Amino acid sequence: MARSLPAAAWEELQDRFEAADASTEYMHVCATIENKMLATMEEGAGKKLPQTVRRCAIIGLAKVVRHLGFKQADWFKAAALLDGWLATCDPNAHDELVSQLPAAGLAALRILGKSAERKQLRRLDFLEPAHILVAVMRQRGHQVPDIPMRDVAAMEHLILKCTQWQIDIPSLDSWMRMFIARFNAVTGGGFVDSLQWVEKFVCPLVKILMLWKPADGHLPPQRLAAGLFSVGLVRAGLLPLHHLRPEHITKDDWEQLYRWSQMTHEIPASAMQPPCDQLIAEAAKIAVDL
To answer: How many CB atoms lie within 10 A of CB 65?
Structure first.
């Protein structure tokens, strides 16, 4: 579709992306930030810290996000900041890392609360959130101290330094929102209901993956989100499954892999008939910038 569009039409589409905060240029910036972060994560403590410990901290963040009235997207942002800090820590300092996790989690949330678009949150009292984070860690058997607020202030600076002063680190959630916004722009808002269904279908999966799987260079969040988004379009009946099949995999094997991954015996029927199905496939490629 992109290649067949006249230059004026392509420029108009880019304007739509810009209006939706999902421009192609912004996506490339996010991809660059993500690649830099993933490169550091390959060597940091995030790979060696037991996932039960990280998961405990992420659960604590979720509870604090609800307590503060933050948005779900803030949970993903805070978790990404936490992972960014872990990526630069000494992987052998296990006990010290565990003791610092509550302060790091609180610092990540305070960083988000101080960002320019959140001026109304700067006066929030973070004392109760500190108790929540510590309580979650202790309830799961981790011996962590109370959080002195002076340690949190120092941790804020350390996290920002570790993430090279990047606050909005790309995550599964942010990529998914961008893909949905771009697909909506490409299709002129003609599939709003279906996209809302896709978002509801994918949201629980994104939460589970954030909780159980830290960002990994072997399957970066951008690529993983593109796969989840595409499967969501298949499940919504917008995109026939065969449009996602790699050339080296047979039709039968591809359908069997889908059934296994989705724990179903059925292949979703597509509401799109030729040539509309090809147009939807092209729109999906543009949405994920492939």
So the answer is: 22
Each residue's pLDDT tens digit, 169-226: 899 999 999 999 999 999 999 999 999 999 999 999 999 998 888 887 788 999 999 9
Q: What's the predicted TM-score (pTM) here?
A: 0.88
> Could you give the CA distance from residue 126 to residue 131 in angstroms, rounded to a whole number?
9
Answer for the pair 112, 79: CB distance below 8 angstroms, yes or no.
Answer: no
Query: For residues 87 and 3, what is the distance between their CA atoms, to the nearest angstrom?
Result: 40
* Cα 76 from Cα 61, distance rounded (Å): 9
**Cα-to-chain-centroid distance, residue 172:** 2
Comparing C-alpha atoms, which of 70, 137, 73, 127 is closest to residue 100? 137
Backbone region of residue 147 per phi and psi (left: phi > 0; alpha: psi in -120 to 50; beta: other values): beta
**What is the Cα 30 distance to its own chain's centre?**
11
